[in-house]
Design goal:
alpha+beta, 157 residues, seven-stranded mixed β-sheet, Aminopeptidase, globular, 34% helix, 29% strand
């Protein structure tokens, strides 16, 4: 399956891709949790809530279709959040999330980030394992806008 990684193209944010950003994220959130107000805010208006402040959204394209997405959200002068990672259900297990995660980490470094962090939920074991392999380590959770978040992870760049 590793060879599939090379077939995946990573694309930066473009307004016409915002529909895929929302659809992919709503699909996984609704499957496991409840879509929350903060989700809706970011998913309905990604240019305003993510791009405008110095973040980016990446898209994984496989065979001409958007297969996954992940956001890099600026949360401080030298820190960013890896957020809203989603891969289409039928395409999971093909290292798409790994390639998205690596793109986000690379972009954070290029933007001068010193710390990259994320919040997730422990029931998402595949995601937690991916974050661990990418180099994130668990840290105590702090105040969060998400009821579903029960783990916080970070990496120093």
């Amino acid at each position: 399956m590793a060879e599939l990684l090379h077939e995946v193209n990573i694309l930066p944010y473009a307004p016409e891709l915002s529909v895929s950003f929302k659809q992919l994220n709503i699909a996984w959130i609704a499957k496991y949790f409840t879509v929350e107000a903060h989700d809706t805010e970011q998913l309905d208006h990604p240019a305003e809530h993510i791009i405008k402040d110095g973040g980016n959204i990446f898209f994984a394209e496989l065979n001409g279709e958007i297969a996954g997405t992940c956001a890099l959200i600026k949360t401080g002068e030298h820190e960013f959040e890896l957020a809203k990672m989603a891969v289409a259900e039928g395409l999971r297990g093909k290292q798409i999330g790994k390639k998205l995660g690596l793109a986000v980490i690379d972009e954070a470094k290029q933007l001068g980030a010193k710390r990259l962090w994320l919040e997730s939920n422990r029931i998402l074991t595949t995601a937690i394992n991916l974050y661990d392999k990418l180099g994130f380590v668990e840290v105590p959770i702090t105040a969060t806008p998400y009821a579903r978040a029960d783990i916080r992870m970070e990496m120093w760049l």
